[in-house]
Amino acid sequence: MRLHERLAAIRSARLDAVNKSILSVLAGYAADDEDRPVWPSVVTIAADAGVNKDTVTARMAALAGLGLIVQTRKHGMGQ
């Protein structure tokens, strides 16, 4: 899925502004290379989305529960 398709899907989803912001941040990182996983840290996502890292952690778990993202931990890397 191309970046403009991802952003259109985010805009049409029934999510609040914080969830949409986090998804937009992730979509921006994914746009660099559509065939590889995206590994921004929670701290990076929080800074880019303008929220704190606890909010990112909770919201990403909720987004994963909705099937909108897949969370994995990259071993040996930051937070």
| Low-confidence parts | none
Radius of gyration: 12 Å
Structural class: mainly alpha
Number of helices: 4
Q: Approximately how much beta-strand content do the residues carry?
A: under 5%
User: If you average the pLDDT, what whole number results?
Assistant: 83
Outline type: globular
- Total strands: the figure is 0
Helix coverage percent of residues?
A: 55-70%
Biggest sheet overview: none
Order of helices and strands: HHHH
Ends apart, CA distance between termini? 27 Å
What assembly state would you assign to the polypeptide chains in this entry?
Answer: single chain
Give a verbal description of the structure.
It is a single chain. The mean pLDDT is 83. The chain has 79 residues and is an all-alpha fold. The radius of gyration is 12 Å and the shape is globular. The longest helix has 14 residues, at 17-30. The chain contains 4 helices and no strands.
